[in-house]
Amino acid sequence: MIIFDQTHNTFTLNTKNTSYQMKVTEFGHLLHLYYGEKITDRDVSYLIPNVIRSHESNPSEVGANRVYSLCAYPQEFSSNDAGDYRISSIEVVNTDGSYAFVGKYRSHKIYKGKYRLSTLPTLFAADNEDVETLEIELQDEVTGVSVTLYYGVFAEKDVITRAVKLTNGDKGELRLQKIMSASVDFMTDDFDILHFFGHHYYERRPERQHLNHGVFEIGSTRGSSGHFHNPFAVLCAPEATETNGDAYGFLLMYSGNFELSAEVDGYSQTRVALGINHKQFEFKLAVGESFEAPEAVLTYSKDGFSTLSHNFHNIFRNNACDSKFVNSERPVILNSWEPFRFTFDEEKLLKTAELGKRLGADLFVLDDGWFGQGDFARDHEKAGLGDWTEDPKKLPNGLKGLADKLHAMGLKFGLWFEPEMVNERSNLYKAHPDWCLKVPDRAPSRSRHQLCLDLSRPDVCEYLISAINAVLDQGIIDYVKWDYNRYVCDVYSTYYPQDRQGEIYHRYILGLYRILDGIVKTHPDILFEGCSGGGGRFDGAMLCYHPQIWCSDNTDAQSRLTVQYGTSFAYPVSTMGAHVSACPNKKTKRVFSWETRAAVAMHGTFGYELDPAKMTDEELDACFKQTEIYRKNQRLIFGGDYYRLSAPNDGDIFSAWEFVSKDKSNALVFAVTEDISILDKNYYVHIKGLDPDRNYKVNGDLTLSGKALDKIGLLIPHTVPPFSTFVFELTAE
Ligand code: GLA
User: Fold this and answer.
1) Terminal Cα distance for the chain, rounded
2) Does the beta carbon of 115 sit less than 6 angstroms from any atom of ligand 1?
3) Which residue's CA is the nearest one to ligand 1's atom 12?
4) What is the pTM of this model?
5) Is the beta carbon of 485 within 6 A of some atom in ligand 1?
6) Predicted confidence band at 649 (pLDDT cuts at 50, 70, 90)?
């Protein structure tokens, strides 16, 4: 899996279908030689041309050799202020005020199993899974500062992870201003980049563009991974499609500020780098102190985006979160937010929950509004956040009274929290006004009337762990929705001296992981769902804690088709919170059939977000049947290979997607049309991933070969009203 070739001084990491190669030069620089389809060659350094790049610097130790240039050669972890002018992997201010860092090979280790980081969540090797780690130590010969590059090789899953730990030498204090988790060089250009942008209600919309000369960059400086860009992108051949062409996935396991950039230089060589965003980032390290950069997850597919997504799905389904819920059946949820907002009492909740059983719900979630008392009661957005005890006005019998009654009805009980936030109108703020992020002498900005607690402070983290655990330790809660409804600004902590304020953005995220460890990991019987104003913190690191994350506050079926489509490029359907909501939709005012809403919500952890008291008996019965369809197929939906069969909003006239069991004996296909009645045209949906040589029964009726289902496809009649839904169940004979 990991080969160190002593003759050529190369490291080759092999997965089932891919190879990744590096070489230590005679001067100790670590070059990146190759990432792509599997090769057996032990040294492909011939790809570096033997040409003089005029004007480029040549390190002094190479003597008269004018070819050897750090800027022309492909680097594994690029240096700083030493003649590589492309995106650097590192920026430091050394004790003497200089900015130079040149990492040279010192040692390496290869071992079975997967490395872990001590401060940040990482992917892990599943039981009995064959995973290997390579650690390479590079050191700057002058300052003694070293970086350990970590590589985790998940051979069967075609995934390679990377992470970096920097350790200061013995020269004195070091100021770390930038460190990338991974950077990959290509000797060529001609790539497209596919990235996922958006905003609240409009998350992870794919956008593809050609990489031209210069730097392309996405990122977040909002304190969270954010709605605006996901910490994930695909570098691909311009001709790459769902089923063909080179595609490289780069994903950062981090929930805070990130940057992901791609540079095509004047020699038409390409570098992709990703890591913590370097805005307002400066970490001081004393002699011998270390800093860990978050993990990056890389995968390559020669067969386009479907395989690339399968690789990410397989790893996130098995190697991110150790919750027992990850691979078990998830409850069908009925959530109180869209129907009731802040206005409810125990009676109303119980009536709703009772009717929820007629929808097939297993778990009732009491969303926002259950906490705070008196003047600080959470009857609106302006009060209560931080006071995590129930409001006796709404819940006279307490959370326990409500929970007991729900449990007696045979329902599970879920509760909403927003641990990281505080309203000024709360007891918590009154007691600890200094516990929120706030720049001295400036009043902090509010967002949704709330302030961010200063999670860089250990005392705030410990308080939150005990306050939330006090509710959870009652043993009456089965599910928690962990929300986060603003972006961070006013980033200053009075807990730290003024020369450490550049650490606060990152220390906030370390604090977040600390409280997640202290709350989530200590409650293995509770199902946790992440959330951030919908899908504003949908990232790989959050998936280490939450088996599922609410995808978007936009529950309009048509909008969700695109949100879920974009999300699926990296994240499995089993992680996407998706609910059927009432129509006209609260946000868009659009109306869709129950069938269409259910089909779209089956592209995720199915549930409801409506008031069943407003539904007719027929509607309740119809929804119950949809819930049953979901329940019957949940294993296939969560565990099968997922295929995008269309590109919604990209000219395709219907949205179609598919789940195929790993043994290819079953498949479930959904198609939702747009307004296609106007064109008198034939539409076919081509079914992927089947065994071409087997015959499949379609909805227990027609029999077709896997090949015909792919090449000819299934007919979608155009004489149907807009947003009609088709479901095809395929069973191999
Ligand atoms: C966020 C969430 C919603 C809901 C509200 C409650 O917007 O995304 O689902 O929980 O907060 O305030």
Assistant:
1) 38
2) no
3) 368
4) 0.97
5) yes
6) low
Helices (H), 640-699: none
Q: Is 293 exposed, middle or buried (0-12, 13-18, 19+ CB in 10 A)?
A: buried
Distance 480 CA to ligand 1 centre (A): 13
CA atoms within 13 A on the CB side of 85: 10
| Cα of 483 from ligand 1 centre, angstroms | 7
Which tokens sit at 216? 């392309």
On the question of pLDDT at 241 being above 70, the answer is: yes
Average pLDDT over residues 100-125: 98
**Ligand 1, pocket-test mutation among 343, 367, 586, 609, most atoms within 8 A of CB:** 367
Angle at 62 between CA 56 and CA 67, to 5 degrees: 40
Domains in the chain, CATH or no CATH each:
2-318 (2.70.98.60), 654-732 (2.60.40.1180)
Question: What is the 372 CA–ligand 1 centroid distance (Å)?
Answer: 17
Residue 717 — very low, low, confident or very high, per pLDDT cuts 50/70/90?
Answer: confident
- List, for residues 253-301, the tens digit of each pLDDT value: 999 999 999 999 999 999 999 999 999 999 999 999 999 999 999 999 9
**Which of the listed residues 553, 586, 610 should we mutate to test ligand 1's pocket, taking the one with most ligand atoms within 8 A of CB?**
553
CA 220 to chain centre: 14
Cβ–ligand 1 distance for 531 under 6 Å, the answer yes
Is 619 marked active-site? yes
Residues 439-477: pLDDT tens digits? 999 999 999 999 999 999 999 999 999 999 999 999 999
User: Given 140, 418, 539, 641, which residue is catalytic?
Assistant: 539
User: Residues 6 or more apart from 403 whose CB is under 8 A from it?
Assistant: 413, 474, 476, 477
Q: Is the CB of 338 under 6 A from ligand 1?
A: no
Question: Taking 70 as the threshold, does the pLDDT of residue 668 lie above it?
Answer: yes
Identify the residue whose tokens are 């951030």.
532
pLDDT at 651: 66
Is 675 catalytic? The answer is no
Active-site annotation holder among 135, 354, 379, 619? 619
- Contact present, 174 and 168 (Cβ < 8 Å): yes
Q: Which atom of ligand 1 is nearest to the CA of 553?
A: 8
Q: How far apart are CA 274 and CA 285, in angstroms?
A: 22
Closest CA relative to residue 549, chosen from 541, 557, 647: 541
Residue found under tokens 């609910």: 579
